[in-house]
Design goal:
The protein is of the alpha/beta class. The chain has two domains: 167 residues, Rossmann fold; 194 residues, Dihydrodipicolinate Reductase, domain 2. The protein is built from twelve helices and 14 strands. Strands 13-12-11-10-6-9-8-7-14 form a nine-stranded mixed beta sheet. A hairpin with a 2-residue loop joins strand 11 and strand 12. Helix 1 packs across helix 11, helix 4 packs parallel to helix 5 and helix 5 runs antiparallel to helix 12. 48% of the residues are buried. The model has no long low-confidence stretch (mean pLDDT 97).
């Protein structure tokens, strides 16, 4: 059964209600391919706002809940054929684990924002629950959904660069260059609050994306790291700037920067992978281009939707070459992989790996352990071994 003829999946959303940026992003991305529809939700931590948000999105009263606990109870009470197919969690990080664990234990498929949990122990428990239940669990490291990131991954894995020697990844923003949290800004307030965000600020918010991008494209495993984290805006508790050196298994070296105090910068995520025979460069703010510098020969510029791209990159595009695609489409590609996996399991068939291309709970758990290791390294001011 192809996507066009298959019944739409039904999903519930937790968080992401009125005025929430990321909830709207997820809903737009899910709607892009017409494969799933929002049918239930608990869209805010405040019951009144949750119901207001649900009504604004057209949810029926019976499916518009004041809390995620009420949503879980209601869905669990329905006949299996009438339950939602998956639950999307777009709440602040402190609530990820209890919500995800409860729905995974109940046998629901889940998609969750990153960082996955506050602690490595929580992440391990969630991995074990998902494994025991045999459910789908996606984590929205959305930058891995860009077509040219998938092209870079294929080229690295195919040996186009030869043996990898150096990886540099930077994620620079400027939106927290001032004490925005003191003004009542909702996004800044929870991201700079250790009780909500966890032990890391910029490192957890955007550094986790940088780590996942490196792992996805190169396949390299970090062996040890040394980190320097700091809060450069006076009065801030959590890091707003992070720099680290990486040593990978096999001998490659790396540099990772994650900073939210670079005044004037917007969303400057960039990756450079250098091997014996060449270098690949990609920038999120120019996502439809991938530059290949050869050690011997001319520089190549690959563009999205070109016929000579790898199949994975071609599948990730939706419109003809020359028309830009971006952030929403990258999110949609993650969801397309999740949906394909759910459909395959419902049909008890084996899915094509190219169809089920998305970050899983294992990627999310590694990201949490990476954050913990980097914070410990910065506190102890020394190299620490990393076991992902």
């Amino acid at each position: 059964m192809n996507e066009e003829s298959a019944p739409r999946l039904r999903y519930a959303m937790i968080g992401g209600g009125r005025d929430a940026f990321i909830g709207a992003v997820h809903r737009h991305a899910i709607a892009l391919d017409g494969q799933a529809e929002l049918v239930a939700g608990a869209l805010s931590s405040t019951p009144e706002r949750a119901r207001e948000s649900g009504r604004a999105l057209g949810l029926a009263d019976a499916h518009n809940h004041a809390s995620w606990q009420a949503l879980l109870e209601a869905e669990h009470a329905r006949p299996a054929a009438e339950r939602v197919d998956l639950v999307v969690i777009v709440t602040p990080t402190d609530t990820h684990f209890p919500i995800a664990q409860a729905f995974a234990e109940a046998g629901f498929h889940v998609v969750c924002d990153k960082p996955l949990t506050h602690t490595g122990a929580q992440a391990t428990a969630l991995v074990e629950t998902v494994a025991s239940q045999g459910t789908v669990f996606g984590v929205t490291y959305n930058y891995t959904g860009y077509p040219m990131v998938r092209q870079a991954r294929e080229m690295v894995r195919a040996g186009a660069l030869g043996r990898i020697r150096k990886v540099v990844v930077e994620y620079n923003q400027g939106w927290l260059a001032t004490a925005l949290e003191a003004t009542g800004n909702k996004q800044a307030s929870w991201r700079t609050d250790p009780a909500r965000s966890g032990i890391a600020g910029a490192l957890g918010d955007i550094g986790s994306h940088a780590e996942n991008l490196v792992a996805t494209v190169t396949g390299l495993e970090i062996e040890e790291l040394v980190a320097d984290l700091g809060a450069l805006v006076p009065g801030r508790t959590l890091d707003d700037d992070a720099s680290m050196l990486l040593r990978f298994k096999g001998g490659a070296r790396g540099v990772l920067v994650a900073s939210q105090i670079n005044a004037g910068l917007e969303n400057d995520l960039r990756l450079r992978v250098s091997g014996e025979n060449g270098t690949l460069e990609w920038r999120q703010e120019e996502p439809n281009r991938l530059v290949h510098h050869r050690r011997e020969g001319p520089t190549e510029i690959f563009t999205r939707a070109s016929p000579w791209l790898c199949e994975s990159a071609r599948r990730a595009g939706r419109i003809p070459v020359g028309h830009p695609e971006g952030f929403i489409e990258a999110f949609a590609n993650i969801y397309r992989g999740v949906f394909a996996d759910i459909r395959a399991r419902k049909a008890d068939t084996t899915a094509d790996p190219l169809d089920t291309d998305y970050p899983t709970v294992l990627d999310g758990a590694r990201g949490v352990r990476f954050i913990e290791c980097a914070v410990a390294s910065s506190v102890e001011r020394r190299w620490l071994p990393f076991s992902g």
